[in-house]
Amino acid sequence: MGKRFQTFVTCCACLALTSGCASDDRAEPAERSEVPGEVSYLGLKTPEDGLQLRSVGAEIGPGEDLEYCEVGQLPGGADTKYIAKSFEFANELGSHHLIVSAAVPGSVAEERIKALGVGNKVPCFSAENAFGNDSFASVGGTQQPYTEVVMPERVGREYTGGQYIVFDYHYLNTRAEPIQARSAFNMHFTDKESIDHTAKGFSFSNYTIATPPGSDGSFVGECHFRDDVVISDLTRHTHRWGTDFAVWFSGGERDGEEIWTSHDWQHDTFFKFDEPFVMKEGEGLRFRCDYRNDTTRPLNFGTSASDEMCILFGTIWETDGNTFRNQNCVIVWKDAEEVGHPAHEAGGFPKPSEQEVTTCMFGAGADADACSRCRCESCAAPAIQCAQNSECKAITGCYATCQPGTNCQAACREDMDTHSSGLGAFQQQTTCFQTRCAAECM
Question: Residue 13 pLDDT > 70, yes or no?
Fold first, then answer.
């Protein structure tokens, strides 16, 4: 068991989409009409109260399942401030998703994006995966040909002139001829005086989902906010095997109260609270993803159109006079009642049994070092699960041979792409290693 493992972040765990993150992979591109006399692109008119940015795009060949992160840039200099009140997103039919995010000025991601250059692209799973975690601010996205996002009253999003933008577009071409991946978005501006709060997004992602072939599956997870926040809406995300998606309050006076149940993975994806309200530190949300696997293969958490996901997104902003940290949450272990939790909640990964430790140590070998011993004594269960999953094992094998100082996510991207259905198990194993054995595996 090599020491070089890095947390993987999926394309959807980084940004809330008003219409979810995946579309029906059987949808086909269609001709997009232009209205004579109007300046438009993909059906978007050039806004009089804002700006429009377009991707260069890419050709997607027959049968190809490709995802790219392409660099764009907002006009103006650092002294130009944009306060966005609403957005419009458009992309070609047949897109699996479009996600747009903005690099935080001065971040590591900004330097990497600058080096790549505006108009250029790289294969990716997400902007974070391609350029650096915790370095992006939300813009938005869509799974449909068109989506409009309007911020709540006196709430907006703030951006800076010259700020780098990443178009993350994923296409699966089921046609016999090439298709063109194209996307664009409009920002509609307002003045600073009309905004009291700056909105951000959160994502709660359950990596423990695994539905056997020809069966139904149901998976529950919960996450809690680390600071006081104001919440206004929720968005569900599964792929096309997802059926019901239910959300409840977890903790606080409303613990166990049902908020919303969606019955349609593609069209019933968005829930807006009657009024935004405060969620206190330690309060959170429990959610359940149901699936019907009518295929002959397992459905695990992964990034391809043939995998599944279980993600709850939402829009939040600061309470009066306070700030808050990143509220994203990754669910990586389940308790005795089969409820999933992040690594830092409910006591964290349970201690493995003696049999699990013995099995893990046998795999580590007689000359196991302190790092391998710690991983087996603390994380035997997810390590065994990964070792028994050929897809996860293939990804682990790449990381284990990754040389020190190398960007292993970039070096192993082809393996992660090829074996994407092993990413859920890989994330569970890696998170346990990082939280339980950081000192021993430096």
Answer: no
